[in-house]
Amino acid sequence: MSTYEEILEIKSAEVEAEKTENGGNGLFTSVNNVRREFTNEEYEDRKVILAQTAFDKQQFGYIEARQIAYGSIADQLDMQYWDAVNGTTNWKDHIAQVKDDNPKPE
Length: 106
Description:
It is built from four helices and two strands, in the order H-E-E-H-H-H. By secondary structure, it is mainly alpha-helical. A two-stranded antiparallel sheet has the order 1-2. It is elongated and about 65 Å long.
C-alpha cells in the first residue's frame, strides 16, 4: 500500500507528463468561454486532487466494491430465508467470498 506522499509523487509526474504532451502545449481550461493554459497554482491543485482521489480509492475503494458485490438487501434476505429452509449456508458463504475478494486495507 502506498503512502499519500508516494501517490502524490506519482500523480505529480503524471501531470508533468500531461503538460509536455501534444507538443508541449500544456493543460488548458475554459473560463467565460475563453481558453487558457492552467496557472501554476492550477497545476499544483490538479496534482493534489489526483493524489487525494487515488489515495482515497486505495483506502476506501473496498467499501464500494463490497456494496456492489453484496447485492441488494432483498436478495440477501432471500438467501437467508432459503438457507433457513434448506439448512444451507449460501448467504454466509457469499458474504465471506465478498470480503475475501475485497479485503480491507491494513
